Prior knowledge:
The protein is of the alpha+beta class. 40% of the residues lie in helices and 22% in strands. It has a five-stranded antiparallel β-sheet with strand order 7-6-5-4-8, covered by helices on one side.
Amino acid sequence: xxxxxxxxxxxxxxxxxxxxxxxxxxxxxxxxxxxxxxxxxxxxxxxxxxxxxxxxxxxxxxxxxxxxxxxxxxxxxxxxxxxxxxxxxxxxxxxxxxxxxxxxxxxxxxxxxxxxxxxxxxxxxxxxxxxxxxxxxxxxxxxxxxxxxxxxxxxxxxxxxxxxxxxxxxxxxxxxxxxxxxxxxxxxxxxxxxxxxxxxxxxxxxxxxxxxxxxxxxxxxxxxxxxxxxxxxxxxxxxxxxxxxxxxxxxxxxxxxxxxxxxxxxxxxxxxxxxxxxxxxxxxxxxxxxxxxxxxxxxxxxxxxxxxxxxxxxxxxxxxxxxxxxxxx
Length: 329
């Protein structure tokens, strides 16, 4: 029979993980020993011993005026995944690397850690290879640094001052910004930060590759409840949701056969509706705030798609197709 730990030891381990979670959740404000003890149903001296044990295990603790917290930039609490959950994370990281045009070192490290705990067989070999492929991409250390700073600011609800790269119009001015979300986009293989521009008093989206630098400020911000990010993202084909007020219905007609079969095999947008046509073709209809990001999707079908609406998009695609054809005359 295996030598199982005592019931008290199991409780102690579970409490240790709970203390670790409470410290992490407390953020920069921290949490007192009394508050932790009350949550765990034990006395302060027990929690103090747990704190010492976490420090011995290498957990980066911080204490300020009797309030304890974790350094979030150096540590995350332990998370347990089953095989299928770990595979879901691996597939998500693979998707990110396919849509990224540069080396993201943290993605490679994350895949390495997943590979280390996978069965030492086909899965692990492919994960190790995937991490190697990530490292083979071009390195953009400035972009990595901007991403790290925005991640830390977002996690800790800290305002930032950010500068866009200088343009033909002259040097950019710093913006006081509250980062609320980081979003990848397959359109242009890009990463974006979405947040509130304090001086403009408006929501803004910035392409990380166009940011020159980011400075994390000491003041925190409260998440704004007057803006439902996911409602607006539902109106975007990629990241651009337009004005946020108007919705455009884009209607595309596809011919019968394998093209229609391919169109019907995927969900291209959350708002999509597919109409079957008498000839076996179909019409794909989506409702979005702006169609500019949808143009590459339309162009990739070549002669196998016709824009039915809106009329402005139909004219723009027609002119682009004629201009492209002239290159081959």
